[in-house]
Structure formats: C-alpha cells, structure tokens
Prior knowledge:
seven-stranded parallel beta sheet, 2 domains, alpha/beta, Rossmann fold, globular, UDP-galactose 4-epimerase, domain 1
Amino acid sequence: MKLRTNILIVGGTGFIGYHLAKFALKKGWDVTSISTKPANKFRYIPKVKYIFCDISKKKILEKKIKKSFKYVVNLAGHVDHSNKMKTLKSHYTGCKNLTDIFLEKPPKAFVQMGSSVEYGRSKSPHKENSKCTPKSAYGRAKLLSSEHLMHLFKRKKFPSTVLRLYQAYGPKQDLNRFLPIAIVNCIKNKKFPTSAGKQFRDFVHVNDVVDSIIKSLTSKKAKGHIINIGSGKPKKIKNIILNVKKILKGGHPQFGAIKLRKDEILKIYPSIRKAKNKIKWEPRISFETGLQNTIKFYNEQTI
C-alpha cells in the first residue's frame, strides 16, 4: 500500500500557508501546520493538523516534531519587524532550528520563503546572483537564512530551495497589507492616507505563489538554488489605487499623506528567467484578473 504524501507547513496559519494547505489537501496530502497561534476564522481548515510552537525555541520544537515529512515549507516569521531581535530569532534562528532537526531525517525537499528585501539597494531587475545588501533587520535575517540553506546544500546535500518572493496578494490576506487597505477603504468609501504612489512594485497572486512552491518541492533542479518569484512586470502604486477606486466607485486616497523614506527605492522587480528554467514556473494569473478576484473576496466580507 502506497503511503500518502505528507507536508509540514511552518507558518501554516498565515496567508500563503492557508492557500498552500488548501491546495495540498486537494492533492490528497496529509497536512501539518506549525505556528505560534491558531488560525483566524477565515483561515482555519478542519483537515489540517495544527501544532503550536515558537520555532526559535529549539528544545520545544524538537518535542513537537515527532515524525518525518516528505516535504517541508518554511513560511514562518514574526510579522512586526520593529523588534529586531524577535525578527532575527523568528526568521533566522527558527530556520536554523528546523534544518538542525531535519538533518537527522531529511525531507525530500525543504523550501524556504525568502524575500526581495534581501537584495537591498541592488538595481532592478534583480537577478539571483545580484549583490545582496539588505538594510533592514528582516532583510538581514532572511539573507542569513538563505546563505545557511545554500551552505547546507553544498556541505551536506540538504535539499534546500529558497524562493525570493516579491509582493504576494490575493483573498484572505491580512488587512494591514497594501492592497487590502486600499480595497477595504474604497469599499467603505473612506478617506485613507497613502504615499504619493510614485513607487513601482512587483505583484504576484497567491495561487501562483503556491504553484511555485509545489513546483520547487517536486523539481530535482530546484535543489541548491535561490529562485525569484514575481511577475517581472512592476506596477505603479498610484495607478493600482486609482484602479481599485474606479472599480469600486468609492474611496478617497490622500496621496502624499505618507512621506516616502529618504532611502526608498522607487522601482523593485525581479528577473524570473531562472524560475522558468529551473522549475518551469511563471505566473499564470494576470494582475487585472487577480485584482478582480481579490476585490470580490473583500467585497463579500464587507457586505
């Protein structure tokens, strides 16, 4: 009898974790989630086995992980990056603790969610071999994790892949993110502060993000690589807000109310050539379709 595929999603109660868990269950996989707190009512899935644990505490984590997994995906990390030590521990120490535990019983694939902020001030389009000079504690923690995983692959053939993600969006994202803020305020026809909107950012729908994770888990060519995940087609922030306002026929963005940081980079986007070559991935959902799909979700929740 063939054993069912099992997957451990670290950060499984988060935005991407929820969508990944849902997709994995559809494939007939057994899904286990590790997170520090329970899922909110919109992201709870009855068939998922939930484990609650702080991955930065290794001894507790060792007690919680009692079996081996075919696939491990690390999406975990403290969301509020103002506490530098907490950010470092949750993103880097947590990643290191996971790999220390799984070195004894390696999964077939270990995918780490990296971030575009690892590139720091490198000029776009970012390529995976671009120089990384992250400025924030979050960016440094993510880069340390990426370097740790690449080192483990070279030294011990640990099956690591790092996906450097740009701006993920879609239904069920937390309300403190850019698109949900704009959408909900436009639905409610409210005033809301925003920057002048001169920045260009790269957006990728959460379903395409999940697709990139699945392809990385199942591709032999992905191991030992850092791979950018984005659209490669940056959008102007002001135009996105105006488009949301037009679709919803409401909202009063206060452009310029939030000042740009002096070191703000105006254009951030990746080259996705490596994703196409290594894991045969490119985004399938256009931003226009994804935005409509996202607006529909928040509209239904707000009614």
